[in-house]
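Re: the request from the purification team.
They wanted to know what the chain is likely to look like in 3D before they choose a buffer screen. I agreed to run a prediction and write the result into the notebook, where they can find it.
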Amino acid sequence: MDKLVRRVTVVQSSGDHREAQVVYNSEEDDDEDGGSPRLTGLERSVRHLLKAQVIAAQEAYRRHIESVEKGGNSWLVEEPFNLMKARRKAMKEARKAAPFKVMKFEGDEDENEKEGD
Protein backbone atom coordinates (compact mmCIF):
# COMPACT_ATOMS: atom_id res chain seq x y z
CA MET A 1 0.00 0.00 0.00
CA ASP A 2 1.00 3.58 -0.52
CA LYS A 3 2.10 5.62 2.52
CA LEU A 4 -0.79 8.02 1.96
CA VAL A 5 -3.34 5.25 2.60
CA ARG A 6 -4.10 4.95 6.31
CA ARG A 7 -7.10 2.66 6.28
CA VAL A 8 -9.16 0.74 3.73
CA THR A 9 -12.74 -0.10 4.66
CA VAL A 10 -15.01 -2.25 2.52
CA VAL A 11 -18.72 -1.63 2.91
CA GLN A 12 -21.02 -4.46 1.77
CA SER A 13 -24.68 -3.79 1.57
CA SER A 14 -27.64 -5.88 0.66
CA GLY A 15 -30.93 -4.12 1.32
CA ASP A 16 -31.26 -3.03 4.93
CA HIS A 17 -28.27 -5.06 6.10
CA ARG A 18 -24.94 -3.20 5.78
CA GLU A 19 -21.59 -4.43 6.95
CA ALA A 20 -18.29 -2.50 7.14
CA GLN A 21 -15.03 -4.38 7.36
CA VAL A 22 -11.56 -2.84 7.76
CA VAL A 23 -9.32 -4.56 5.24
CA TYR A 24 -6.12 -2.56 5.80
CA ASN A 25 -5.03 -0.43 8.76
CA SER A 26 -1.71 1.43 8.63
CA GLU A 27 0.79 0.87 11.44
CA GLU A 28 1.74 4.56 11.39
CA ASP A 29 -1.81 5.49 12.34
CA ASP A 30 -1.28 4.18 15.88
CA ASP A 31 1.96 6.14 16.32
CA GLU A 32 0.34 9.47 15.45
CA ASP A 33 -2.31 9.25 18.17
CA GLY A 34 -0.06 8.95 21.21
CA GLY A 35 3.52 8.61 20.02
CA SER A 36 4.59 12.25 19.68
CA PRO A 37 3.59 15.17 21.89
CA ARG A 38 1.72 18.12 20.47
CA LEU A 39 4.11 21.04 20.15
CA THR A 40 1.73 23.75 18.95
CA GLY A 41 2.29 25.89 22.05
CA LEU A 42 6.04 25.69 21.69
CA GLU A 43 5.81 26.47 17.98
CA ARG A 44 3.65 29.52 18.73
CA SER A 45 6.17 30.73 21.31
CA VAL A 46 9.08 30.32 18.90
CA ARG A 47 7.10 32.23 16.25
CA HIS A 48 6.52 35.13 18.68
CA LEU A 49 10.20 35.23 19.63
CA LEU A 50 11.27 35.26 15.98
CA LYS A 51 8.76 38.00 15.26
CA ALA A 52 10.20 39.96 18.18
CA GLN A 53 13.68 39.71 16.68
CA VAL A 54 12.39 41.02 13.35
CA ILE A 55 10.66 43.93 15.13
CA ALA A 56 13.87 44.78 17.00
CA ALA A 57 15.92 44.82 13.79
CA GLN A 58 13.36 46.92 11.87
CA GLU A 59 12.94 49.40 14.70
CA ALA A 60 16.71 49.76 15.25
CA TYR A 61 17.22 50.34 11.53
CA ARG A 62 14.41 52.91 11.36
CA ARG A 63 15.77 54.81 14.35
CA HIS A 64 19.32 54.70 12.96
CA ILE A 65 18.18 56.18 9.64
CA GLU A 66 16.35 58.99 11.47
CA SER A 67 19.48 59.77 13.51
CA VAL A 68 21.69 59.85 10.40
CA GLU A 69 19.27 62.19 8.61
CA LYS A 70 19.80 64.78 11.37
CA GLY A 71 23.32 65.18 10.08
CA GLY A 72 26.70 65.33 11.74
CA ASN A 73 27.76 62.75 14.28
CA SER A 74 24.56 62.78 16.32
CA TRP A 75 23.91 59.17 15.36
CA LEU A 76 26.92 58.14 17.48
CA VAL A 77 25.35 59.63 20.59
CA GLU A 78 21.83 58.40 19.86
CA GLU A 79 22.71 54.85 18.75
CA PRO A 80 22.78 53.21 22.23
CA PHE A 81 19.42 54.79 23.07
CA ASN A 82 18.00 53.75 19.71
CA LEU A 83 19.03 50.15 20.33
CA MET A 84 17.55 50.15 23.83
CA LYS A 85 14.24 51.57 22.60
CA ALA A 86 14.11 49.08 19.71
CA ARG A 87 14.80 46.22 22.11
CA ARG A 88 12.06 47.41 24.46
CA LYS A 89 9.56 47.46 21.61
CA ALA A 90 10.58 43.94 20.62
CA MET A 91 10.21 42.66 24.17
CA LYS A 92 6.55 43.63 24.12
CA GLU A 93 6.06 41.13 21.30
CA ALA A 94 8.22 38.53 23.02
CA ARG A 95 6.01 38.67 26.13
CA LYS A 96 3.25 37.09 24.06
CA ALA A 97 5.32 33.89 24.09
CA ALA A 98 3.57 32.47 27.16
CA PRO A 99 5.75 29.49 28.17
CA PHE A 100 8.90 31.58 28.32
CA LYS A 101 9.62 34.15 31.00
CA VAL A 102 10.92 37.34 29.45
CA MET A 103 13.09 39.93 31.19
CA LYS A 104 11.53 43.19 32.29
CA PHE A 105 13.17 46.56 31.92
CA GLU A 106 13.25 49.06 34.77
CA GLY A 107 10.87 51.47 33.04
CA ASP A 108 8.27 48.81 32.20
CA GLU A 109 5.20 48.67 34.36
CA ASP A 110 3.35 45.48 35.12
CA GLU A 111 -0.44 45.41 34.62
CA ASN A 112 -0.92 44.20 38.19
CA GLU A 113 1.10 47.13 39.54
CA LYS A 114 -1.12 49.61 37.68
CA GLU A 115 -4.25 48.24 39.36
CA GLY A 116 -2.74 48.39 42.84
CA ASP A 117 -1.74 52.09 42.64
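For the purification team: The beta strands are 7-14, 17-25.
Please add any questions underneath this entry.
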